[in-house]
Design a protein that fits this description.
Length: 199
């Protein structure tokens, strides 16, 4: 079904995009900050559900559209590379801000909707997931299972990160340096997307 290199590329793509700060990860970290790890765990299921719906809908749409517009997948890869490059530059300029602990904790519905509307869903469907995942049931099941297995620990890491910030354990952490390191990773990933689109 998938070659070893395709599986490795899928795994790397999923991890790189999921660790990137964004609306969903900010909500997860903020929940960890305000209510701790244990009470925030159900949010992981809300994130997974939001991405499963978003990726599935976008993937099916793009699979159908690619028949009429064969140039669409290449254009989407280029657009995704430009978008990720924009995120990298934007991340370099500004530190990630978590909502203050006085704000109300995010609920399951809030996190689900934020994830459903997250542009990363389109990025996963159009660029990270192989096209075969949306035309063959077994390939879809494999890709989604892999996605779920990678999402759970990364979401937990964002929650734990927020909880550690709230407890003062990460007082030594420099958010600017952390964000700039992440922006470099994003920049390299955007270049790899652009390279893949033209080769």
């Amino acid at each position: 079904m998938f070659s070893t290199s395709a599986i490795a590329l899928l795994a790397v793509g999923i991890v790189v995009v999921l660790i990137t700060p964004g609306p969903t990860n900010t909500l997860l970290a903020a929940a960890g900050l305000r209510q701790g790890v244990r009470r925030s765990l159900p949010l992981i299921a809300a994130e997974l559900a939001g991405y499963l719906v978003s990726i599935s809908v976008w993937g099916r749409f793009l699979a159908q559209a690619a028949h009429a517009l064969p140039w669409l997948p290449s254009l989407l890869r280029v657009a995704s590379g430009v978008y990720i490059a924009y995120l990298a530059v934007d991340m370099w300029r500004a530190a990630v801000a978590l909502p203050v602990s006085a704000q109300r904790a995010s609920g399951l519905r809030t996190l689900f909707v934020a994830t459903l509307l997250n542009p990363k869903g389109l990025l996963f469907a159009g660029t990270i997931f192989p096209a075969i995942a949306f035309t063959q049931a077994s390939a879809y099941a494999f890709a989604m299972l892999m996605f779920a297995c990678l999402l759970a620990p990364l979401a937990l890491a964002w929650i734990a990160f927020g909880a550690a910030l709230g407890s003062g354990k990460l007082a030594w952490l420099n958010p600017v340096k952390l964000q700039r390191a992440a922006s470099i990773v994003l920049g390299v990933f955007s270049l790899s997307l652009a390279w893949a689109a033209f080769h």
